[in-house]
Amino acid sequence: MSIAAVMTAARLNQDDYHDNRLRLAAEAGLSPEGLDHEVQCVLRVALPHLVTHVPKPASPEPLGEWVSMIRGSDLTPQPIEWIWPGWLASGKVHILGGAPGTGKTTISLSLAATISSGGAWPDGTQSPKGKAVIWSGEDDPSDTLIPRLKLSGANLDNIYFVGNVHHGHDRRSFDPALDTDSLLQQLMDMNDVRLLIVDPIVSAIAGDSHKNAEVRRSLQPLADLAASLRCALLGITHFSKGTTGREPVERLTGSLAFGALARIVMVAAKHQEINGEGDNQRVLLRAKSNIGPDKGGFAYELVQSEIREHPGVVASCVQWKEPIDGSARDLLREADDVSDDIERACLPDAKLFLQDLLSDGPKSAKDIRKDADGAGYSWATIRRAQQKLGIKARKEGGHFGGYQKWVWALPAPDD
Question: E strand or H helix at 38, and its extent?
Fold first, then answer.
């Protein structure tokens, strides 16, 4: 048997092997089947050594959809690029939440104004100068947003508002849930976009804003846009009703995915009373950060003033005050205590509301909550009224697999 013939056979590719199989078998003194067996044995032992000498064929171009792989050693560690150190980062998603009346939109416009003019942040650090892009589904730019920006010292040459979407001669309102690709094309042509504000961020959700998967799927295009442009994305949202006492991130309206996807979550709140006239201090707090400190904040006031160049146009702006120490959860608990004082003042009316609602008989807790919400009562106030009135809650239904519900009823006169 010719070992050289077997080794030669082992080195051939499959097509060449079959073309030369009979000749090689004859040289080795084997039958074609015997040659096959010998080659297989050689390959088991020699293949690890042979393949080092055989050039790899060129990889064919992938067809259809494919997934790219990035080797870790091909990546270079990079520092976070801060626009406002610890608060606004280039290429990252940020969320600003809070209760109504805390000035969330005005705060976001103050951030935009600082960037547009290259001004100073509340902590004294300097902002890089750049462009800010704003989409608002709630406020008119001319009579609300521009006056606030002017009062905040914005360089309006660096402020842009997202307008309509045009298709030929047709146009429609911009929809952040549908038009991210078109927006990206415009922003790439602008250069030096540092901040993109989406107010409210829930408008970017095409499906159910309470479902994690749908929220993540809808927000990902905006997150990719921010990463591509290296700008900070700031989404504005509210606190959900009935979430007092929870972790700050859990209080954001909608799915927990809003807070999970954001690298930094900020919250605005009314803090403790600061004088005898019932005024409350407002605070901007850092509730979560995956890329920096996650505590502390700044006090601020909302100040109304007439714009000097435009008599009769009155707007509000943020005046930043002293830094605040502590966690957002602890500071929000103090803010909730202020709200509790307001709730206690509403308690007598809430008791009358409940008595009237249940005067005709028991009612489901779900319907009571709906009616209370429509009447402007918080669920915490309604629960206090329930306790004061001695209203009992009991389960009804559920027999034979039926639907079970909680119902409330006024106590009997002899209870």
Answer: helix 32-50
pLDDT, one tens digit per residue, over 118-161 is 999 999 999 999 999 999 998 999 999 999 999 999 999 999 99
CA distance 103 to 233: 18
291 vs 93, 262, 265, CA distance in Å?
11, 10, 11
How many angstroms separate the CA atoms of 341 and 83, rounded? 38
How much is the mean pLDDT over the chain?
Answer: 84
Is pLDDT larger for residue 173 or for residue 63?
Answer: 173
Contact at 8 Å (CB) between 9 and 27? Answer: no
Angle at 309 between CA 147 and CA 322, to 5 degrees: 55
CA separation, residue 71 to residues 57, 68, 74, 76, 80 (Å): 21, 10, 5, 11, 21
Give φ, ψ of 123 to 5 degrees.
-90, 5
**pLDDT in the model for residue 82:** 98
The CA distance from 287 to 254, in Å, is: 17
Pairing of the two strands 193-199 and 131-136:
parallel
> Which amino acid, one-letter code, is at 192?
D
Pairing of strands 264-273, 232-238: unpaired
Quickly state the pLDDT bin for 340 (edges 50, 70, 90): low
* CB distance 111 to 84 below 8 Å: yes
**The residue to which tokens 């994690």 are assigned:** 212
Q: How far is CA 148 from the centre of its chain?
A: 25
For residue 248, what are the CA distances in angstroms to 35, 108, 240, 335, 368?
Answer: 74, 19, 11, 12, 27
- In the chain, what is the straight-line distance between the N-terminal and C-terminal CA atoms, in Å? 108
Long-range CB pairs of 168-176, under 8 A, 24+ apart, other chains included: 174/135, 175/203, 176/135, 176/203, 176/204, 176/222
